[in-house]
């Protein structure tokens, strides 16, 4: 997605060979017009898949997921990372290890928002090692629903996540794929178009 790539080049900051800061439009301040375009891009990629629900994870997955939900005309459920006062019963959970943060956390979604008839699109802001997406897919499977696809806003293709998710046999689409952050510079993957 060219608009997203230009935004990353213009407003992203490379913090290290592994980490890209995009607080100006995705992870802290949010650019609504860009998010709408992101939602449209996901809707056009997954529009023919019969999606009935979108699942994401708080907090930075919510903005792109809501816009995709708007464009696909389906509800959006976000997994919680912290315990909620009201969300206590009937929880489906998964344990997610973050290689970036070196922390283990439990993510949860209420079983009442996922049914075995659902055909689910997973959306997340970043794909690093793929652990968050795998946790979401585990929850979708626990509900007896189908994981129909995974939509990622920014993929760091030099990390393991893409390989992990491709191994699941689920369609993965990333709007920007980063080949390298070396030398303080964002280099996008050169994608061969057929
Ligand atoms: P994984 O799910 O792909 O395995 O990712 P990992 O555990 O390594 O990442 C943990 C958190 O760090 C996630 O956000 C993820 O989006 C974020 N992250 C990973 N790499 C980058 C990066 O290069 N830049 C930025 N900006 N974020 C990155 P989180 O802690 O869940 O945050 P939030 O969703 O609450 O904002």
UniProtKB/TrEMBL annotation:
> Which EC number(s) does the record attach to this protein?
2.4.2.22
Q: Which Pfam families match?
A: Pribosyltran
Q: What is its main location?
A: cytoplasm
Stored InterPro entries: PRTase-like (IPR029057), PRTase_dom (IPR000836), Pur/Pyrimidine_PRTase (IPR050118), Xanthine_PRibTrfase (IPR010079)
List where in the cell it is found. Cytoplasm
Catalytic activity annotation = XMP + diphosphate = xanthine + 5-phospho-alpha-D-ribose 1-diphosphate
Q: Where does xanthine bind?
A: 20, 27, 156
Give the enzyme's main class according to its UniProt record, as a single word. Answer: transferase
Instruction: Identify the keywords attached in UniProt to this record, alphabetized.
Output: Cytoplasm, Glycosyltransferase, Purine salvage, Transferase
Q: What is this protein called?
A: Xanthine phosphoribosyltransferase
This protein's species is Bacillus glycinifermentans
């Amino acid at each position: 997605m060219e608009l997203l790539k230009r935004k990353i080049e213009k407003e992203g900051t490379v913090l290290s060979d592994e980490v890209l800061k995009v607080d100006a439009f995705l992870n802290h301040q949010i650019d609504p017009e860009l998010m709408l375009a992101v939602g449209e891009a996901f809707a056009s990629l997954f529009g023919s898949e019969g999606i009935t629900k979108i699942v994401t994870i708080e907090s930075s997955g919510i903005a792109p997921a809501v816009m995709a939900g708007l464009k696909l005309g389906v509800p959006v459920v976000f997994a919680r990372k912290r315990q909620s006062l009201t969300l206590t019963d009937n929880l489906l959970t998964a344990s997610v290890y973050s290689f970036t943060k070196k922390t283990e956390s439990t993510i949860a979604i209420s079983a009442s928002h996922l049914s075995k008839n659902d055909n689910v699109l997973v959306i997340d802001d970043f794909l690093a090692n793929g652990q968050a997406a795998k946790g979401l897919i585990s929850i979708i499977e626990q509900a007896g629903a189908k994981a129909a696809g995974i939509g990622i806003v920014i993929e760091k293709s030099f990390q393991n996540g893409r390989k992990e998710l491709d191994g699941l046999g689920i369609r993965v689409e990333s709007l920007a794929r980063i080949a390298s952050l070396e030398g303080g510079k964002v280099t996008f993957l050169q994608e061969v178009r057929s």
